[in-house]
Each structure stands twice: as structure tokens, then as C-alpha cells.
Amino acid sequence: MSTDIQTPRSGSGKISPQYRRGTGSKGNFEMFAWLFMRLSGVVLVVLIFGHLFVNLMVGEGIHGIDFGFVAGKWADPFWQFWDLAMLWLAMLHGTNGVRTIINDYAEKDATRLWLKVVLYAATVVIVVLGTLVIFTFNPCPVANGVQLPGGFCPAP
């Protein structure tokens, strides 16, 4: 008794023709995406542990984190760029990972296209809004000549 086992994804007819993907070359994009994941992962580990150390170990620890703590940190351009790098790298790293999952599991081209459109749109919105928050943050806002309550801002 002999059993013939088909090679996985060998075109044995188990995948309907409408779900077959083209064999077109994507150039070096996938190699650069793979390399980006490794390098950004290493940089993210440094950024995240630095962020956690400063926020949780230095000063009063977790009890010292409040609006004033964040306002004081973001008054320094170093911490603005640190948090910006963390935001951008985390979003791009995560987007690339989800893009890979979409490519692996979405069988129809149209489904893959729309999932990626939603993914990229969400990424752009979060990166733009996060960048705006980091660079336009004002801890002592004034509206119509009246200083809004911030709890720690000096009285006018």
C-alpha cells in the first residue's frame, strides 16, 4: 500500500483558481521590510526601556506621573524627539507586521487591498495626530484671554 503525499502549496488543486496569487516579483521590498523589522525591534527595545526607566524608576516613580510630569518632559526637545521616535517606530513596526499577516491570510486580492487601505489609513491618522500632540502640547492653554485651569500653571 503506497500513499502519495502532495507537496504543500504545490498546486495540487486544493486552492480554487480565483484565490491563486500571482507570482510577480516584488523586488527587494520584502527583504527591506524584513530587515526593518529586525532593526526597528532593537531600537524600540532601547527606546521603550529608556522610557520605562525614566517614568517609573527616576524621581517618585509611578506616583509622580501626572499631567505636570508629562508637561515637564515635553518641555524638553530631547524627550519630544524620544517619544516621537518611539511613536513612529512602533507604528511602522506594527503596521509592517499586520501587513505581513494580511498578506499571509487574506486569500482574495480585493480583501487584501481593502484591509491594507484600512491599515495604512489608521497608521497615517495615528502618526499624524500623535506627532501633532507631541509638538503642539501646551500645558497652560489660554482661550479668549482667559487661562484654562491646569492645576499647576502660574496665575496670570
UniProtKB/TrEMBL annotation:
The keyword Membrane applies. Pfam families: Sdh_cyt. Keywords: Heme, Iron, Membrane, Metal-binding, Transmembrane, Transmembrane helix. The chain crosses the membrane at residues 35-58, 78-96, 117-137. The keyword Disulfide bond does not apply. Residues 1-15 have a biased composition (Polar residues). It comes from the Bacteria. InterPro entries: SQR/QFR_C/D, SuccDH_FuR_B_TM-su. Residues 1-21 are annotated as: Disordered. Gene3D superfamilies: Fumarate reductase/succinate dehydrogenase, transmembrane subunit (1.20.1300.10). CDD domains: SQR_TypeA_SdhD_like. It is found in: Membrane. This is Succinate dehydrogenase hydrophobic membrane anchor subunit. It comes from Arthrobacter ramosus.
